[in-house]
Specification:
alpha/beta; 9-stranded mixed β-sheet; 5 helices; globular
């Protein structure tokens, strides 16, 4: 009897996720960016694909760290082929630097536009293209209605979208599966030798639909993520409400 009830509950949870646009990955279609313990925070313990991920940046340093983290995740999405599109008004990413994350710059199509309205339009149209690996859009403000249009596009095309918001005035609720905040932390070199170490980040998952927010310290070394410390703590519910 207990087993039957557990199966019913499990199926209901899957049905709810599906209604919210989070479909279970088909066999052979799963993509694991190698985020390690972060996966436990995601529904079905898998990085959400075919969804919009929102990244909040509070300054130039945070923007650079966020671009690096997105590039590291993007490298896993692009391993099975396809190209990605990166749309922005003032391009912050340095294309040759993408090779540090295993991405050939010629596999990224950069689109530079002046107005945020144009960026949103270009991102929505790009997200409708089923052959793309991912679409990244750099923007400051976005309404729930506009974000919903992006989410509807990815649900149909199964393309993953990354929305990098530079110092937004309002932390409004949008139709994204997750809200992230990435900041750089001090790196270290092998045997304390002079020079620069591998990129390191404090990774905060502020909100995750049907998941568990948290914070981790990670670095990118030898072409993969490396977890530096135990999970710091789940973010308090009060903070979740403030960022929502």
């Amino acid at each position: 009897m207990l087993t039957a009830k557990s199966n019913i509950i499990s199926q209901l949870q899957k049905d709810i996720l599906s209604l919210q646009g989070l479909h279970a990955h088909k066999p052979g279609k799963e993509i694991n960016p190698g985020l390690g313990p972060v996966n436990a925070s995601f529904p079905n313990n898998c990085f959400p694909l075919a969804a919009i991920h929102e990244f909040i940046s509070d300054g130039m340093e945070s923007t650079a760290a966020t671009s690096g983290f997105i590039s590291a995740v993007l490298s896993a999405l692009m391993k099975k082929g396809g190209v990605s599109i990166w749309v922005s008004a003032t391009r912050k990413i340095f294309p040759p630097g993408l090779t540090a994350y295993g991405i050939q710059p010629d596999r990224i199509i950069f689109i530079d536009l002046k107005k945020e309205k144009e960026i949103l339009w270009a991102m929505e149209e790009a997200l409708k293209c089923e052959g793309l690996a991912a679409v990244i859009g750099e923007i400051k403000e976005i309404s729930f209605t506009d974000s919903r249009r992006l989410q509807l596009a990815v649900e149909k095309s199964q393309v993953t979208g990354f929305l990098l918001r530079h110092q937004p005035r309002v932390f409004n609720t949008i139709a994204a599966v997750a809200r992230w905040r990435i900041n750089s932390i001090n790196s270290s070199t092998e045997d304390e030798l002079p020079g620069l170490g591998f990129p390191r980040w404090n990774v905060e998952l502020l909100k995750i639909r049907n998941g568990k927010p948290g914070s981790w310290q990670m670095e990118w070394a030898a072409g993969k993520f490396r977890h530096l410390s135990p999970i710091i703590a789940s973010l308090p519910q009060e903070q979740n409400r403030k960022t929502g």
